[in-house]
Amino acid sequence: MTVDMLMDWFATIGDFPILSFLLAVVISGVPLFLVMALNAMVAVYVERKVSAFMMDRIGPMGQGPGLHAGKWGLLQTAADAVKLLVKEDTIPETSDKLLFKMAPFIIFIGAFLGLAAVPFSSVLQVADFNVGVFYIIAVGSIGVIGIVMAGWASNNKWSLYGAMRSAAQIISYEIPAGLSIIIPIMMAGTMNLQEMIHFQEGNVWGILPNWIIFNNPFTFIAFFIFFISAVAETNRTPFDIPEAESELVAGWMTEYSGFRWAVFFLSEYANMLVVSGLAVAGFLGGWQSPIPGMFDTGAWGLFWFMSKLIFLIFVMMWFRWTFPRLRVDQLMHVCWKVFIPIAMFNIFGVGIWKLIFG
Amino acid sequence: MADIVFWIIVGITIGSAFMVVQSKSLLYSAYALLFTFVGVTGLYVFLWADFLAVVQVVVYVGGILVLIIFGIMLTNKITSVNISHSSMQKSAGAIVVVGFLAVLGYMVFNTPWIELANSEPASTAEPLGHLLMMDYLLPFEAASLLLLGALIGATTLSRKEN
Question: What CATH number does residue B51 fall under?
C-alpha cells in the first residue's frame, strides 16, 4: 500500500491530481502517525512491566476509574497520555522562543520520515524506495539537528551538555551502524528493502532460514554491531549519557514539559521502531516466516515482521534494565576503537566470502 | 500537481537561503541552512536522482550542518547567546553578485542541456557505482587520499603536544 499505488488507483477513478495527491498522502500518513502513537503508548506500558519483572516487582497494577478497576494496570498508559496532554506547557523566560518551539517538530519529522520506509509486510509500506536502506539511515540524522536545537534554545547548561553529548554520540554511532548495514546491501545487491527481504527467501545451511544474519560468520557479527549501534543511536540505556538523570537532570529535554515533551517521547519510541525495523528487514528476513514455506501468505507477513520487531524492542528494554550506563570515554572507545575496525573487517570478509562462495 | 510542489520546494530553498545570508544570528543562519539543504534534496528528487538526494541529506544535513553547529557552539562560551554577524560593503557585494549572476545566466542559456527522459530510471545507484569503480577509479581514489591527508593533518594540528 504505497503512496504511488494509491495515486495510481485514484487516477483510475477520475482526473483530479491535486486532490488525489493530498488524499494519498493523508491516507498513508495518518495511520503512520497512529502507529507511532500506539507504539509509544504500548511501549510505555510494556517498559513499566518489563522493568518491574526484571526487578522482581509487580509494576503498575490498580490504575483506573475507582479503586483497582483497571486490570493489571492496563489503564496506566491512558493516565500517562492524559497527564502529558493536560500538563502546563512551560517555556523558559530566557530561552530562544522560536527555536525552542521548532525543535520538537524537527525531531518528530526525522522519526516520522524514517517510519515511512519501514516494510511492515510485502504490501504494507508507505514508500517503497529504490534506496530505502540508505534513506532510513539518512533521515535519522535530521533528528540530531533538532536535538542540538532543543539543547541550545533551552538556554540551560544541562540541556546544552546533553545535546552536545547526544549529537556526538549519534553521529559517532552512525558510522558503525552504516558500515554494518552495508553488509545486507552487499549480500542482496540492492538497497530496496522489499527486494532485500525477497533475497532472504528459502533455506541456508540445511535447516536455517536464509536470513542474512545466518548467511555467513561476518553477517552474524555485523548484525550485533548494527543492533548495538542502533541502541546507541536511539540514546537508550546503557548509552543514555545524553540524558543521564544523575548528572544532567534530563539532558536536552530538561526544559520541556507537557505536549512538547510528549513529542520527544513519541519520536524516541518511533526511532526504536525504525532502527529495529531496519535490523529486521536487513538481517532477520523481514516479513519472511522463520520456517520457510510455512505461514508465509497474506497477513502472516505482518505477523512475522511485528513479532521480530517487538522482540528486538524487548531486547532494548532488557538492555536498559540489566546494564549500567557507560561513561563518555568508554562510549567513544567502544565506537571508534572496537566497532568501526570490526565493521570494516566485516565488509572485507563479506566481500571475500561473496567472491569465493557467492 | 508536480509544478505546485516544485515551486513550493524552490520557494523554501530560495527563502531559507536568503535567511542564511540575512539573519543576524550565526546560529539562525545555520538552522536556516537546514531548510536550504532539504529544498535542494527535493530538487534532486525532481530530477529522478534518488540516490543523490539521500546522499545530500547524509552529507550536508547529517555531516556538514552538524559540524557547523558544533563549530559555533564550541568556539563560543556556552552561556553567551550573543553570536551574531553583520553584512559589510553591501555595494561591492551587490556588484559581485550581479556579475556572478550574469556569468551563470550566460552559462545556463548557452549550454546544450541533455533532455532527461521523463520516466523513472530503474536504478540510479548501480550506474553510479559502476562509473565510480570502473571509469573514474583513479580520480575517486585520489580524492579519498586527499581527504585522508586532510583528516590526518587536522588531527595533527588540533592535537595539543604534551
Answer: 1.20.120.1200
Instruction: Give the domain extent around B68.
Output: 2-88
Question: Does an H or E element contain A28, and which?
Answer: helix A17-54
Per-residue model confidence as pLDDT tens digits over A82-139: 888 888 878 887 777 788 888 888 888 888 888 888 888 777 777 777 888 888 888 8
By C-alpha distance, the chain B residue nearest A148 is B69
The residues with which A208 forms a beta bridge, in sequence order, are A204
User: How far is the CA of A80 from the CAs of A89, A123, A258, B40, in angstroms?
Assistant: 16, 33, 11, 40
Q: Do residue B61 and residue A145 have CB atoms under 8 angstroms apart?
A: yes
Looking only at the bridges linking them, the beta strands covering A208-209 and A203-204 are antiparallel
User: Distance between CA A7 and CA A21 in Å, rounded?
Assistant: 6
Which member of A131, A157, A164 has the closest CB to residue B54?
A131
Judge whether B19 lies within some domain: yes
Is residue B142 assigned to a domain? Answer: no
Q: What is the pLDDT of residue B95?
A: 92
B1:A160 CB<8 A = no
As for how many domains chain B has, the answer is: 1
| Distance between CA atoms of residues A42 and A39, nearest Å | 5
Report ipTM for this prediction: 0.76
User: Looking at chain A, which residue has its C-alpha nearest residue B51?
Assistant: A131
For residue A204, the SS3 value is strand
Question: How many Cβ atoms from other residues are within 10 Å of residue A337's Cβ?
Answer: 10
Residue of B8, B19, B54, B68 to mutate, testing the A interface (most A Cβ within 10 Å of its Cβ): B54
| B chain contacts of residue A127, beta-carbon cutoff 8 Å | none
A130 → closest Cβ in B58, B81, B124: B124
Residue of A328, A331, A342, A347 whose CA lies nearest to A173: A331
Residue B96 at interface with chain A, using a CB cutoff of 8 Å? no
What's at A65, amino acid-wise? Answer: P
Q: Tell me the nearest-neighbour CA distance from B51 into chain A, angstroms.
A: 6
In this structure, which amino acid lies at residue B19? M
The verdict on residue B20 lying in a domain is yes
Sort residue A235 into left (φ over 0), alpha (ψ -120 to 50) or beta: left
Contact across the interface for A171 and B123, Cβ inside 8 Å: no
CB contact under 8 A, A157 and B51: no
Give percent helix, percent strand, percent coil of chain A, each to the nearest 5. Answer: 70, 0, 30
Report if residue B105 sits inside a domain.
no
pLDDT tens digits along B111-126:
888 777 666 777 778 8
